[in-house]
Structure formats: structure tokens, C-alpha cells
Amino acid sequence: MHRRLRRALAPVSFALVSLALMLPATARADTVVGPGGGTPGTSSNFTLVGHAPLYNRGMNAALALYDHYAYVGNRTDGSSTCGAGDPRGPGATCPHPHPGVQIVDVADPAHPTVVGEIGPPYEGNVGITSRELRVWPQQKLLVVMNFRCSSVIHACAKGTDATFPYDFKFYDLTDPVHPRYLSRYVPTSRAGKTYKPHEMFLWVDPKDANRALLYITTPNLTVDPSVPNLIIADLSQVPAGGAVSEVAEGNWNGRYPGTDSADYPFKKDGSCGPYNCNLFVHSVGLTPDGTRAYLSMEAGEFLVLDTSQVAAGTPNPSLTLQTDPANRPTWDNPNGHSAVQVYGRPLALTTDEVYGTFTAPDQGCPWGWMRLINVTDVAHPAIVGAYKLPQDTCPAPDAATEQFTSYSSHNPTVLRDLAFIAWHSGGLQAIDLADETHPTQAGWFSPTPLDTVATEDPALGRGPNKVIMWSYPIIRDGLIYVVDIRNGLYILRYTGPRADEVQAITFLEGNSNLGDAATLAAGSGTGTGAGGGTATPELGSGELLATGLVPFAAILLYRRRGRHRTRRQGDDTAA
Questions:
Q1: Does residue 294 fall inside a structural domain?
Q2: Model confidence at 419: pLDDT above 50
């Protein structure tokens, strides 16, 4: 009888197992809660090597390294504008000291020392933030992305893109303490229209050290195929005094279900339609060989893009969307920030960024966290694991935290089995990825905040927790460099599980393919690293796009009205 029962149940069991395997990975993903990181002045498995408070200026931004120097951008501007909530305001009675790009000598990591600054007329100007930085080391080229910053969330002077123009500026680092200005570039579509940048990924051709591309996101809501959400620009001629040239561009909003309706992006009453006025490419990450891009799509979650023709140098290359948006991985309240490769494995890591309710009424707890997505089948990427902090489980402990703090994942740098993520008030998080279905906390570093700074972050720094880890961590010679918006540059040594992976790194950052990236990816068999095989076959045609109808400024206006889950930008620009 028992055997007959087993035989009778066997087909049913097989069917149930098959059904379980076909269920979306979101339903099976294990969200692990890492216990530490939300308390300033605490750490686990990190040793503080050195710290530069950067004149206690506050509002620090992106980080880049060259030789034995660190370059740190500024999140605010060169005005004296008082930020929201500053007791000295309102008005222009709150000086922003040293508003340019800081140059820090890190030859002795235990004693980083500011030795210079790139200031006006190139950086540190009124109304403009030096938000993102990269270095192309083979050509001694520093790239600084500048754009108009927000009077609401960045304490910047009010203005327009005409009065405070956006651009990329390029500097020669032959003398690293005195960078020499070379030229500027304004992102321009094939149709000849210019667009404000937001994020960038630097890709240097592993087969040609003299060829480098910038993948630039230019957020727009429109489905118009003449308006780019992504511009790929060739920098190869810049070091010798030449111009930037556009390679390709794309916009995939029109591929999303519902964007063909009459109420996208706005309803007749002016409120947000499908995707809550929040559908665009926020940032992009590339595999080291440049054949595949991962798109972080804000309300559109995550897509995979075939960029192999760009990598190969094919004239007029096509960008082929490999993930139909109808088959993308989805999750609640998406606000995608970053999407990067987990080296040597068929995984992508994504982060969501959510601010407090000061930014928008429907922001705040539960903020945003990390997910791991299996990309073996790029047509159907599947969430297999997730990681968050205790503070990402509501309610927030107090009103000030809910309004002016973010316990949100932000910028990641990822190895094969470890991720280091700047987690705003959660500090720097180290996450063990060995079991992608169960990522676990491997350590954290949450510094003791400075007593005072010149400019508090109006959106992220007015709560009780004064830690705001922000930049992509950079690993160099086994040490980790990371910038806290409020508290400056930190140099750390990781001592936790799999520390040997970190000690073996000569250079790695999450926003380029430089250093050890190709070595880490090689041999994975996924086609994602140099020498790693071929890319997954194409599944459909991507649209090549160009100019603009619904600019980012319009997105920001609706954000300020708090009609959806994204950042309050006021009359200005993004976080």
C-alpha cells in the first residue's frame, strides 16, 4: 500500500517541484536582515586606517583615485545659500567653504592630507555641483561631471540650466596636485540636443588602452524615440586635445507595458500616471569586456542590454534590449539606483535608494535595499536573494529619522563573494554573497560623526544619525576608500570573512571596469568578463534614440509634489 501511494503521488510531487521552479524568484528570495551598521561610532570586521574630514565642509560627493592622490567632489555649490532647516537662514549667510574638488595625498593612508583643490572658474562654482568623478589612469585623465544642484535638498543657489550649465570637464593629471584643465563636453544627442547627465560608468577597452567610453544616463520620462535615457560617448581623443564623439544612444521606456496609455506619464489632472513619474535609466553597470550592460531603471527595476557592438567598435552600433520589460524582475516600491556585475558569477547586484519624507511624503521607511538577480537567462532575470538592515523594517523610531534620514543602499563595489555598499546612515556594509540565496552581513563601519560641519545635508543630515556613507567604495592595495557626505574621506581595512579576496585586489571600483575587474570576471563562462565566452544571443531590437520632450526638470517638479515614491527635487536636480 505504501509503495502504491508513493507511485501515485510521484507525478503530483514532480508537478509541484516543477511549479516551484517556475515561480518568480521574487517569491522564493530570502531577504536577510543584517543586524549592524545603524549606530554611529560602531564597527565590526573593519579597522579605521585613516580619515580626512575635508575641512569639515560637509556635502562631500564622489571619489576618484590616481597615483597616491584622492579627488573628492562636492554635493553642494560655491554659494553661501542656507539649506532648509539651517538656523542661520534663510538667505545667503551660510558660506560653503572649499567648494571645489579636494585633492588629498594618501601616500600614507594613516594620515591623508589635503594638498590642493580644483576651484573656480572650473569647479566650486555657484549653483553647480561636482557630483561624479572618474580617472582614466592610463591617460592621466580626470573626468568631473557637473550639473545644477538643488536649492531644496543640496543647499544650492536657485537658478536654471541656462544660468548654471551642466557639462563634463577633463583635466590632465601629469601634475596630480595641480590638474590642468583640458576641455569640456556637454552630452549631445544625434539630433543635436543637449541633455543633463546624472550618472556615468567609465569603460576602458581591455583590448586597447587608448580607447575609453563613458556610459552617461540622461533621465527622461518620455517614450519618444528621439530622446535618450542613455548616451555612450567616446573619450579616446580627449587626452590629446581632441573632442568627445557620440557612439550610441537609447531609450527603452516605450517597451514597458502601460506606457502607450493616454495617462502616461501624466494623467489629465496633472498627477502621475503609470510608473509614478519615475521611469528612466538612473545608472548603468557594464561587464568588464563591455558586451553587456545592466540598467537600473528607477520604477522600471532592472533590464539587461546587449552592448557587444559598442565594445567591438562596430560603426553605428546597435543596442539590443535582452530583457523584455514585461519579463523583468519586479519588487514593491521600486526606486532603483545601481546595478552591477557580481564578478565571475551569473549574478547582478542592485540597490534601491529612498530618502526621508522631507524629500517626498511617500518616502521614508522602509527605505531601500540590495537584491541579487540571476542573469543566466537574460530574457527572464530572477531575484534569488536580498539583504537589508533592521531600520528597513518599519516603523521609523522617531519623526526626525523618518523625515531627514535614509537607511538606504546606495553605491556598491562587488567582488565574487563580497559586496561593499555605502548604505547612507547604515554606514559601509560588507555583505557575504557566497550563498546568493542567503546573503549575510560580513561586517560594517559606522564612523563617529564630526561635531559640526559647515553645511548639513538638508535631506539626509538633519536626523539624529549623522552618518551618511555615499560614494562607490574603491579598493586599492587591499584598503577600502569611501566618502561620507557629512564626515569626509575614510580609509579602512576589512578583516572579516573572505578578507583574502580584498587583500588580493590592487584596484577595483563599482563604476568602472578598471584594475582587477577583468581578472575577477575571466573564466566565469558567462560571457561577462574578458575571455569569458560570448554574450547571450539577442532577443529583440533596442531603439536608438536622441533628443528630449519631458526633461528631468519636469520629473523633479512632480517629485516635489510628492505624488510618487522618489526623491523630492524641487526646482532643481537629482540626488
A1: yes
A2: yes
The set of cell numbers assigned to 215 is: 556610459
DSSP state of 540: S
This prediction has a pTM of 0.89
- 242-263 core/surface letters (b: 16 or more CB in 10 A; e: else): eebebbbbbbbbebbeebeeee
- Distance, in Å, from the CA atom of 205 to the CA atom of 240, rounded to the nearest integer, reads 18
Instruction: Using DSSP, state whether 308 is helix, strand or coil.
Output: helix
Separation between Cα atoms, residue 16 and residue 128, nearest integer Å? 58
Alpha-helical runs (H) found in 56-157: none
CATH of the domain at 289: 2.130.10.10
Q: 344-377: per-residue pLDDT in tens?
A: 999 999 999 999 999 988 899 999 999 999 999 9
Under 8 Å between Cβ of 467 and 446: yes
Based on the structure, what is the number of domains in the chain? Answer: 1
E-strand ranges in 410-530 read 412-414, 418-422, 428-432, 440-446, 474-476, 479-484, 488-494, 507-509
Residue 544 scores a pLDDT above 70: no
| pLDDT tens-place string over residues 475-499 | 999 999 999 999 999 999 999 999 9
Residue 499 corresponds to which amino acid?
A: A
Question: Which residue did the predictor score with more confidence, 451 or 24?
Answer: 451
Within a domain: residue 100? Answer: yes
425 within domain boundaries: yes
Domain of 226, in residue numbers: 26-560
Choose the weakest-confidence range: 68-72, 403-407, 534-538.
Answer: 534-538
Cell reading at 375: 542573469
- The arrangement of strands across the sheet holding 347-352 comes to 30-33, 382-388, 370-374, 347-352, 336-342
pLDDT of residue 575: 56
| Ordered DSSP codes for 400-411 | HHHHH-------
Answer yes or no: are the C-beta atoms of 219 and 209 closer than 8 Å. Answer: no
Q: Round to whole Å and give the CA distance between 114 and 258.
A: 51
Q: Which of 179, 31, 165, 169 is nearest to 115 (CA)?
A: 179
| pLDDT reported for residue 501 | 95
